[in-house]
Amino acid sequence: MRIAREQVRVRVPATSANLGPGFDALGLALGVWDDVTVRAVAGPTRVVVEGEGHGSLPDGEDHLVVRAVRAGLEMAGAPQAGLELHCRNAVPHGRGMGSSAAAVVAGLVAARGLISDQSALDDDTLLGLATELEGHPDNAAPALLGGATTSWVDAEGPHAVAIPIAAGLRPTVLVPQETLTTSSARRVLPRQVPFDDAAHNVARVALLVLALGGRTDLLLAATEDRLHQDYRADVMRPTADAVRALRDAGWPAVVSGAGPSILVLEPLDRATGDALAAHGWQVLDPGVAPDGAHLIDT
After folding, report:
1. Which residues take part in binding ATP (predicted)?
2. Residue 2: inside a domain, yes or no?
3. Are 101 and 237 in a shared domain?
4. Fewer CB within 10 Å, N side or C side of the chain?
5. Residue 213 annotated as lining a ligand binding site
6. In terms of residue numbers, what domain contains 246?
């Protein structure tokens, strides 16, 4: 295997995992994009970041995109080189919109674009590598494949398939100023949950697949969760309160991933959006990204 291209450019979408009841399984790609250019060079590795993460991310080998490129090249048996990265980041960091998955998937797709035989890094292989780096495939799957996905892990590794979604599905994302690490959000989860709560979520996930496919009248009921959101409420109280208020008003609102952003699986009316903006929420209308990470001609 050899490096066949000196430079590649990748676009990768934000993602929202869980979608309420689908904990660690369901994910949705959103139309907010990171744009990453990777260049193989003879000198040392250097990373330039614009936008989200500017001034706070590593600028060398510890950068997550660099680590992912290296993992992809190693898997393909391709030679390592110095790397120059230019990252134009729009995916918010630390807010439950899949920024780390976007970085990992961008690096892996860049590695695939650099090598002479791209079939050595097919989507299944990249999902496996992304899951190793991320810990779970729920964000990596939609970042790689686009649209809505369900993912799972068995003895053979991680897998993902697309979930058909209605053409008119248009989510709203509410982004707070506060951040929260995924590790902090996971620490408050119990090791066991009541049987009734598990059964409740199984039913809601089945309902949610129908709702995403066009039965939008089911979205509010289908997004009920008992496995994780209530347990996380104390570490993201403004988010928990806003989700509750939105749901009481009839909106299918859930915590986006580990939070603290909120995903609403419908467009908000202007009055509701303005009221939230007045309380410090950034209101986004990103649409669903039908395509996952992909190379752009440079």
Report:
1. 92-102
2. no
3. no
4. C
5. no
6. 172-284
100 is in an annotated binding site: yes
Do the annotations mark residue 228 as ligand-binding?
no
| CA distance linking residue 87 with residue 93, whole number of Å | 14
Residue 51 has pLDDT above 80, yes or no: yes
- Measure the CA–CA gap between 43 and 49, rounded to whole angstroms: 19
Any binding-site annotation on 135? no
Residues 147 and 292 in one domain: yes
215: annotated binding-site residue?
no
pTM for the whole structure:
0.94
pLDDT tens for 97-113 read: 999 999 999 999 999 99
Residue 99 among known ligand-binding residues = yes
Phi, psi of 196 (to 5 degrees): -60, -35
Question: Does 164 count as an annotated binding residue?
Answer: no
The predicted structure's pLDDT at residue 298: 65
Annotated ligand binding at 96? The verdict is: yes
102 is in an annotated binding site: yes
Total domain count, the chain = 2
pLDDT band at 274 (very low <50, low <70, confident <90, very high): very high
- Residues 190, 102, single domain; the answer is no
* β-pairing verdict for 82-89 and 46-51: parallel
CATH number assigned to the domain comprising residue 138: 3.30.230.10
Assess whether pLDDT exceeds 80 at residue 6.
yes
Domain at 227, CATH number: 3.30.70.890
